[in-house]
Amino acid sequence: MKRSGEPPASVTSMTINGIALLVALLVSWWLLGSGASVSGLSAVLMIAASYVLPIVVLEAIWLEPARLRMRPPRPTSPNVGRVAVKLLGFAVTLWLIVGVYSLFPEYRGAFYARYYAALRAVAPYWLAVSVPYFFWMDRRSGGERDGYWHMGELVLLRWRNVDRAILGQYLLGWIVKLFFLPLMFTYLLGKIQYFRDYHFELVFTSFREFYDFAFDFLFYIDLLIAFVGYLCTFKATDSHIRSTEPTLLGWAVAIMCYQPFWSFFSSHYIDYQTGGSGWGKWLADYTAVYVVWGSCILALLAIYVWASLAFGIRFSNLTHRGILTNGPYRYCKHPAYVSKCLSWWLISMPFMVTTTADESLRHCLLLLLLNVIYLLRARTEERHLAQDEDYCAYARYIEEKGLLRKLGQWLPIMKFSPGRLFNVAHR
After folding, report:
1. Which residues pair with 319 in a beta bridge?
2. Are 152 and 281 part of one and the same domain?
3. Can you tell me the distance from the alpha carbon of 334 to that of 369, in angstroms, rounded to the nearest whole number?
4. Residue 320 backbone phi and psi in degrees, to 5
5. What pLDDT is stored for residue 423 in this prediction?
6. What is the pTM of this model?
7. Inside any domain, residue 419
8. Does residue 238 sit within a domain?
9. Cα three-residue angle 86-160-140, rounded to 5 degrees
10. How far is CA 58 from CA 10, 14, 52, 68, 377, in A?
11. Residue 292 is part of which domain span?
12. What mean pLDDT is reported for the chain?
């Protein structure tokens, strides 16, 4: 029960997430800094497991009792027929995913080869665990007719039993995983290889070396959290997808910020970079300013990663997996977007060009356009989450006590309005 004037309880614990990250970093140091002879796939799985397991265990001890009081369990004997339908739906879903990866040229290139190798390596174990897991979850959920069941009923041509809303949300959730999981895995594997070859003794030889290391290290943490988030969507750990973004606008402004779409939009419409120079070139001759400016960038990126850490094992774009009200979310509804957008202005310095003032203005407007895209991402996320009463209560708390509460007073369009957002979402 929350105290008066406090936001709703968060679905995660920053203490638990911080402990898990510390364990994962220690394992990372052992694997990457000591020269341990472990394959890239094994390193990814071991580091991910070292982050996931502490969260699952500690949440089961500290958070699960409260969850059970809020949602009393309804255990029942598993029904073989019902579970068989769910397993059929699961199998067909996997077949569809393989079909998508085989069909589209984007997924037939060498970039995803290591992802497919990882899938082939873990698939036998994953499938072996799936059958007992489905029986266990069917009992634990009281025989819930979830998306797997509706997918199975669709395949069996028992269309009258299919709830289109549940099936639609189920398919959208899998599309999120289909799109983001291979990206995060491939990027994370690349970072692991980078740190395996990195000479750590260089870190403190100069601020430039420290900045480069810290920049990559922060994004390594972020990629680890993101990979785990897209991987661990399980009801058993209360990290399942409650709902998925239902609107085309929400999907469009999210996926355009990721490959392969980002390459197209950034090169044709949002190329705000000033010839690739950025802050390092402009401030290279001003040592004190260079250090302060670089430190500000790292501070903003640290806030961004702090926001990711608040998710624990629930990080994901385009989905609702529980309301966060802790960490930086206690002070701002969108700390990751705010810090990321501010960091881009410091990194690229679009206002600094060697040609004309008009060119400088053009680059600033293009970066401002990217900021607007992230504003749309924030608004569509709010529109989606506004269906949850806890999020509405949280948003009202932020408007009263958040760090950016004055912004809503100066710009009324920035104020949270759940009624208006909800209506727009379902037109």
Report:
1. 244
2. no
3. 18
4. -110, 115
5. 45
6. 0.92
7. yes
8. no
9. 30
10. 15, 12, 10, 15, 32
11. 243-425
12. 90
